[in-house]
User: Fold this.
Amino acid sequence: MAADPTNPIVDRELRWQAAWKARHLGRAVAQPGRSKFYILFAYPGPSGFQHVGHMRGFTYADMIARYHRMRGEAIFFPGGTHASGLPAITFAAKVARRDPDTVEELHARGLNDADIASLEVPEKAARYLGNEYWDLWERLGLLMDRSTHVTTIDLDYQRFISWQFSTLQRLGKLVQKPYYASYCPVDGPVSVDPSETDLSSGGTAEMVTYTLVPFPLEDGRVLLAATLRPETVYGVTNVWLPPTGHLVEWQHSGQRYLLAPAGAARLCEQAGGTVGPAVDVAALHGKTVTVPLTRESVPILPSSLVEPSVGTGVVMSVPAHAPADWVALQELPESERAPLLPTVRSIIEVPEESLNPADRQSMAGTGFPAQKVAAALKVSGLKDHAALDEATGHLYRLELRSGRMSTGEFRGESVATVREKVARRFFPEGGLEIREFSQKVICRCGREVIIRRVPDQWFLAYGSPEWKSQMLEASKRMHFYPPEYGEELSGIAGWFEDRPAVRRGKWLGTPFPADPSWVIEPIADSTFYPAYYVVRRLVAEGDLTVDDLTPEFFDYVYLGQGAPPTSERKESWERARREFLYWYPVDINLGGKEHKRVHFPVFLYMHTALLPPPLQPRGIFINWWITSYTGEKLSKKDQKGGAVPPVDVALSRYGADGLRLYYALGASPFQDVKWEEDQCQNAHARVEETLELVLQTARGAASSDDPLSLTEHVDRWFSAQLSEVIHGVRDAWDGYDLRSAAQATYVTLPALFRRYRARGGNHLPLLRRAGEAWCRMLVPITPHAAEEASSAFGESGSLASERTFPTGEDFPRHPTAIAFERTLEQAEEDIAALLKVWNAPPRQLTLFVASPWKYRAAELVPASIRQGRLDVKSFIEKARADPLLQAHLPDLARFAGEFKRAEEASAVAGLTPGEEHALFSGARDYLSRRFRIPEILVLTEDDADAGKDPKGRRHRAHPGKPAMLLE
RNA sequence: GCUGGCGUAGCCAAGUCCGGCCAACGGCAACGGACUCAAGAUCCGUUCUCGCAGGAGUUCCCAGGUUCAAAUCCUGGCGCCAGCACCA
Assistant:
């Protein structure tokens, strides 16, 4: 990736990045006796070029790491790429077919045709992209340790994964059982997912599982119907077969079943058995079969509703509850229909009160449920597929959600629970099912993808109650950002089941140690890797070799079992063990919200299985996404509402600091943000402004460690505010409240400096100290600007990034100064309000400070508050006893109500009349400038006479709230 | 359907856990002003309604409820988004 050094922003940032590198700031150095901080983000899969959305989380990780570094902790911030599975293969395939966008990107990055051709090899593509990612991270200013860089297809990583799986197997975390996998007869296992890496069509297909229901004929053969609603067997009136064509015999466990050829072929793949002779359907029409459970005899009838390619091509008819069956029944000739009608019966009831208004409409009228729904949705006949499907789906959901059986042995129980119980009755030795895709799935090779039973699939036993509770137990001791995720996790654990751990087929990954014909799947091999980063660094530095990475080595390093093999390896092995114990556990694992359901739970599962409690992870941080205007997760192709620039373009426009501030300031991390380039532009401008403002404070006095002695009000106020803001920023960082930290540092502080200047403040040593603190506060979010500012202060010997974060302790606090200033601010608001309704340009403003007796009265207010309100009676009592107030009793009654508000101001401020007068007198120039009022007078209520105040406004004055006269 | 999340002024987005300090942080955009020959940048101000005196009225998806007091708590409704299994 070519960064353009002629761009001044880029140039500045490259310079500081080089400086960090020269001082090895990203390098993880264990410092025994000092606390450490291990943070990582879920490594990305090398599936293409990264965009501004990906960088959001990565940048948060760096901000947090940088803050911890400034708290004096040793930092471990590694990174890698996850090439296992399909991403690299997908990318290599795009290169191989010379996808125009991909080729253009590669050319733009300076690759020639030969380079591009080499990327057709997935492993090479993965390594190339991995390096690109790292370059990009460094350009963003992330201070990471590049010696940890690993790709999951590296040999050493595979050694590690191999150990992980042998160990899991030893611990009994792997179990073998049958599994139904999508499978191409030519290419073997394929993945059915919307990205269609393996497919030419059908990526959105879902796997549908039908229950099989046996209907014995008199001759012993069994018609095999397929259904999604086995509980409706109690309402069967007949069996449907296609009008023409043939069925085949399927012989399985000693039975002769009859079903359509497509279904028989599927069952052979999924359950075994063999296909026997064909049988013409016409020979079956009119015969009778026995309904299971009810033992009734019902006829076999032809109907065009049967689709031979779906299910078994045999359908059990339940006219009362299946709209299609009802309609088919109506379309039968009268001679066949008449005898059937009396047998139609409802077997499921939906209580009236569980219907919502829409349901109620569809279930209006009389008749059977299927009849009513078909009528409500205006189903015109069997050919009216759209309406029929809708009617079927509607009734299916309604009865599943709220229906109860009204007949049979499960009478009164809910449909949802009865469904499975009934299915088990048909085949006591274990239910027969047939699985198929909801739409045709075609492999890249052109063959149709089928579902095949894999009898000996290995699973990770996440469903195991002990393992599950171990995992949840560990999660209770963790910190989650946002905290709600902790709660959510126990919900996720509720449905988390065993997951396939390995598979056969073409994808990248580590061979399964127990049987190398399997490859370990990509989630299982990407959740314990934080442990490997520690070792990887030592391999990269040459302290360890790939040959060292034996199972015994990992037992020794991670589990503390065994001993180094030879005396010359002893030291290296021991060092690896020490480093691991130093850096572990993981303090924060950060990832996008897509990882909530799989990656993070498995990350915890793996750690609880393999490591003792003290080494369990301490925290998980989840960031939401940058989305496009349509609310979709952002991708480069989705550019509605404005083009999304590639990261390097965004970097040259807004700088790394601009982007970083955008991420931090735009929204809380726990919220999707719509991509708006204006916001970036603004963030960039704000960085430059802030830098400029900091640089201004650099001029003047030299640095000094002496305590500041402040005598002027504005200086005291400024110092006190700084102390408050800095403490607030520290608190925000401690809670990883990035947005508040950013807002205080880049919005509140600049405003504070401006007001200080506007109020005439110019205490150089104070400004100097404030500027130095500010520089360091800029480091976590905008590190390049921070270095630039810091160097302007002439601080040498160290970089801002290696200093400590300000504590605010060296700014004297003056609580009353803040309250005084607030009094002034309140007066400013009042003046502004007056000016708003004042037409002419103002000539003069007179401020009247309240009479001393009002201050005295205000002091009595707090003692007279009853249930949050001023109790006027007791207030007057108290005043009556005070000599100063006796003369003003009538006024007191009039002002009592208003005192409530005015009291707040003066009680906080602790103002005396003299102080208030001095405060406003001192602010005359400032107010005059700010409001463009030529003349400002400050009088007291008592020393003004009626001639100066004809409307008597001066009597509105309260302590802390002067009366005003605008002329 | 299940599970989770969300609905705040023109747009983005804080606040909601722990009710009052909220006409509601911040940003964008727009408008006015300063500066300028001009534009841009920058700075100041305004942007729910009304008001020639610092005030009043009406707001935080909708409808109820609790409370002296609700964007915030409770009940019901409407609407939007994501994940749902091998896909990292």
Confidence is low (pLDDT under 50) at residues 636-642 of chain A. The radius of gyration of chain A is 38 Å. Residues 154-171+524-583 of chain A form one domain.
